[in-house]
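Q: A reviewer asked whether we had any structural model of the full assembly, not just the individual parts. We don't, so I'm hoping you can provide one. Inputs are below.
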Amino acid sequence: MALADVVLRLTVMVALLLSVASVALVGPRRIYRALRDYRWRLADIGPYLTILVLILAIRKLTMDYTSGLSWLLDLNITASIYSLEGTLVADVQSIRSPMLTDYFVFIYLYGYVFLLVFPFIAYFVRSDMTSMKELIVAYAFNYGVGLICYVLFIAFGPRNLIPDIVDSLLYVTYPQSQLLTGEVNHNTNVFPSLHASLATTVFLLAWRTRDQYRAWVPISFVLAVSVSIATMYLGIHWGTDVVAGTILAVISISVAEYVVSRDMLAGWGPFDEEWNLFDRA
Amino acid sequence: MNGCGSSIGRRELLAGLGTAAAAGSAGCITDLWASSARDAPQQISLNVKTLPTDADTPSIIIARQFAERLQEVGINATIEPKSEVELLRDVLLNREFDIFVTRHPGIENPDELYSTLHSLFVEEQGWQNPFGLTNVTLDKQLQRQRTSSGRTRDASIKNALRTTVSVQPFSVLTCPEHLTAVDIELATTWNVTSLKTMLDYLRIRPKETASNDLDTLRVALLNSEVTKNRNPIAVEYHDRNNVLGLIYDQIGRRIDGDVEPWLAHSWMWLDNRDTPTAIVRLREDLTWHDGEALTADDVAFTFEFLSDTSMGGSNGTVPAPKFRSQSSLVANAEALSDTRCRIEFEPSSREVAATAFTVPVLPRHVWSEETELIQEYLTQAMVDENRQPVGSGMFAFDSATAGEQLTLQSFDDHFLSQEREQDLEPPVEQFAGGPAYDTLEYIVTPSGAAAIELIENDEMDIVGSTLDPEDAPRANKSDSVRLLTDSSSEFYIAGFNARRSPLTNPHFRRCLARLFDREQIAEDVFDGYATPANTPLHGTEYVPSDLEWNGESAVGAFPSENGDMDVEAAKQLFLDKGYRYSDDGELLSQGQS
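A: Here is a predicted structure for the entire assembly that you could use as a starting point for your response.
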């Protein structure tokens, strides 16, 4: 099936990128060693990971209902965003060339997923799980706030409001990708841009861990900026969405720092001492 | 309208402050009193609802350009893209709109104008007078169109169209061509059709020389509603009948313009009556998809149910929001035997009365359990998702996954596919044997471009929805896809809510109607795959010559200046009709609520 095809391509490409980056930036030996004593690591981050998985599950399971709820609330901000920023996205598209389009399509689909997944590997092998926890809390916060905003606001992207001014470059060059993006999100959920917010979050965390992963800082910076531009260049997001996403990223880092420095999630729910799901030896 | 009627205008406030500053003189108190007792005129606010690109590209372009022009002439215009279901819900059910722009499902026969525009339907739902138009002259013309025949009827239709154009409850913008794409291999060995009507599904057949068989016809569907909701009377999900029409068969079917017996073997008109009465004789041994017998009782039930889905259980009648053009023609329907049904009509000509036979027949044993009222003038039948539809059509429901696919199987007990072909007479005879494939698989596809790619990859055979004009070049360029174009009775419409001031004023609506540059829309937005028009029924003999397109709109020319709108000339249109502007160029109205 066509969707399976798109997913397979994505998986292969991202796996390839991850392997190369892991070998170059982390090193196979460290990964091997980290995998060997995975137990304490998992025990440590378990409560955090559960929160993230919960939020993602809620997001996925309620997708049909949340869109109905949005339409009930009926806060349509599409036209307000357009009158706020005008034809900014068209200006971004004015630099277009076939090569740039290929680049941004690649970044939007593959680069983005790679950017989000790689930190899990990088931070998992560290001898201290603080960065890993910050990463998870920041992601969870981004997705959580995103979910709330998506329910609250109805916002169509530029390609849906001004197709005569802005081209839907992603879906024109790679129509089948819409099979995948349609599964992941509704077209009324563009404010804020989670692409921009999560990508920026990764870069900000890379900056915090610059001592250990020096090369990751410029790489994640280029990728994060590229992802943010790609969302506009491809006609999917407004500049406003990207700005809101960037602000969300900054807030998510502060929240993550606050939560993790106090290890606030360590003992919640099933991860209470009595439950003892993992061997803490 | 945006609820801005209660806010205090800037000028009012300044005026108030000015008088307060000069307090002390008795005259100012009087002035203050006088101005506070009178409401200053407010800027006119209008909201334009339409579909986003994902649902329909031309609609959003037309609507947005229109809203921008409204702003240029001093109206506080906003644009609101809504998903298809939400737009139809607002417009057709809740009547919650100022102006909407969308693609109308089309008017094929002139009597549909009656339910579209007669004031009888102002309180109903569906495509029944969503505009809230109440015009005594038009009512008479529409009524005469129903009751007369021959040249008198033609003249009434023409007059009704003239009145409609003159008072502009809606503006026809352009008539698009129906565009689809098909696998080129299929197109060389088979006779392919655009799948615009139900009969097109039967007309897709191998050319005689071809021997290749097709088990499954894989159809790309650009609208996913039918994978979630299969209620034939839920107008907000299905304001067109193309897929559900395969499942629900009709008594009579329009074949090449005339209503011909379909589920009916024949019908006979009784003479010597003021109003037409017909005896419909059904074909023998008709069955529903669930195996129950389809009898004249189901036919009688269908008419009663469509006129009142509460079946007498409500204060008034709760008509189904669809098929009103047909159900409003029928006064009484009664089964005489298993195969014979007597139908008494409202005053109408036989020609018009026969259009009532094009309703889908609904099974009594299913829908009689849906008559419960769940709210005033709302029955269970109108909100049921009807996931397992039981019809009697050429295809029976097999399975569906919401948002992904819908599979139909050809129905072996259908009268076309049974070994009784000697029964069939022309023109039905040409469809003997039923569909040339067993399974019909609809696959929801996010865009026309993706559908064309999937046909190229041999994952689909044909597109079952109309493509956007922007998809046409992609289909034309492809070596493995052929673009099919077909005429269509659909049209792009800007509907005005005549219940809301200042849209209550036909002159105001006419001014608005002139702000559409129909030639430019047909050429730029549709890339030539559309023709500008003044009226529904475009291209038929019903349109009087003075309403045929002659280069400019029948309500007056678009105020143009080098291809763009001449703002001053456009503002003059409103001034000429008694409207006034503020110093800041805002178009004002007294008492817009």
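A: Points you may want to mention in the reply: The interface with chain B takes residues 1-2, 64, 71, 76, 78-79, 156, 159-164, 168, 171-172, 175-176, 178-179, 182, 187-188 of chain A (CB under 8 Å). Chain A is about 75% helix and 0% strand.
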